[in-house]
Amino acid sequence: MLSILWSLGAFIVALGILITVHEFGHFWVARRCGVKVERFSVGFGKALWRRRDSQGTEYVIALIPLGGYVKM
User: Fold this and answer.
1) Rounded CA gap, 2 and 20, in Å?
2) In which band, very low, low, confident or very high, does the pLDDT at 32 lie, cut at 50, 70 and 90?
3) CA atoms within 13 A on the CB side of 34
4) Following DSSP, what letter does each residue of the chain receive, concatenated?
5) Is residue 68 classed exposed, middle or buried when 0-12, 13-18 and 19+ CB atoms within 10 A define those classes?
6) What pLDDT score does 2 carry?
7) In whole angstroms, what is the distance from residue 41 CA to residue 44 CA?
8) Of all residues in the chain, what percent carry a pLDDT higher than 70?
9) Is there a catalytic annotation at residue 58?
10) N or C terminus of the chain: which is more exposed, having fewer CB within 10 Å?
């Protein structure tokens, strides 16, 4: 049983890393093309952590780590 929990945890962490890298690609291209990015979010649902940078972009880590988005 413990092995299944470790595997599930590792899968969620790996998925979170993959999603972050994927969404960062969208974020990077948007910034390079001069598009204002309002939000860079990893996960859906209630925000667990959020910060805003000097250009007005809000960075969010949300409760459900099964996706992400870049709001422009």
Assistant:
1) 27
2) very high
3) 0
4) -HHHHHHHHHHHHHHHHHHHHHHHHHHHHHHHTTPPP-EEEEEEEEEEEEEE-TTSPEEEEEEEEEEEEEE-
5) buried
6) 85
7) 8
8) 100
9) no
10) N
Neighbour-count burial of 67, counting CB atoms closer than 10 A to its CB (0-12 exposed, 13-18 middle, 19+ buried) = middle
Catalytic residue among 22, 23, 67, 69: 23
**Tokens (6 digits) for 39:** 């939000």
**What per-residue confidence (pLDDT) applies to 66?**
86
Residue with tokens 């979170």: 16
Model confidence, pTM: 0.84
Return d(Cα 51, Cα 62) in angstroms, integer: 12
Rounded distance, CA 30 to CA 37, Å? 7
**Is residue 33's pLDDT more than 90?**
yes
